[in-house]
Task: structure prediction
Amino acid sequence: MKSNSALSLLFLAVSASSYSQTIPIHKTSEKLIVDGDLSDWKTPFLGPFVIHNSGAKATQNTSVSLSWNDENLYIAYRSEDSKIVGSQQKTDSQIFSTDDLVEIFIDPDGDGQNYAEIGVNAFSTHYDMLVKCISPACGGWKTAMDFDILGMEAVSKITPEGYCTEIKIPFSSLETIKNGNFSKPKTGTKWRGNTFRIDYGNTTEYLALQPYKSSKFGFHQPEEFAVFEFVE
Result:
């Protein structure tokens, strides 16, 4: 088992050098209010999102902005949507199977284990899930939906063009993830991850800011996650 684990980590390291792309997270001194109104955002938006396993153009545009201060990670999405699918539901409902939503995956050490998945739909319903393992080397697919990021805020606001979403993630809560190797970032810190959207409108599309060069289907391809870099 130790040999298999070592080989798995080596594979992830080699794959990371082949596939990773850098997404900047800009430090901000602005006081961001998590309310779905993006008028207070000063950091640049990146996009548009593309089909996650081909890089093809999406039917509807999505862009994202990431920022941070000494306490929190902030993410904002603009999602064009002419046909919003979903509803307000209980926290931690499996909305990824039914609702239009945006997502972020965060795996600081890039080992494909104990990484956070967060999703928010157009009606502010959110879930936070811990992905403990997806590889046979660590025991096969294991997730924990009862995982909670304390202090997290997530709000969406429906607009004439679609919906906007804001998320605040306290670093202090991420640091409590066992074997996640989360630590409070500083300028130059690099984490692995990506930002996504599922659009169940006129046609179902699985979108990402950075597509997977291998063309593998499914968001859970940690060996191909991009690099989040914390910058000034």
Helices lie at 2-19, 171-174. Residues 1-19 have pLDDT under 50 and may be disordered. The chain is about 10% helix and 35% strand.
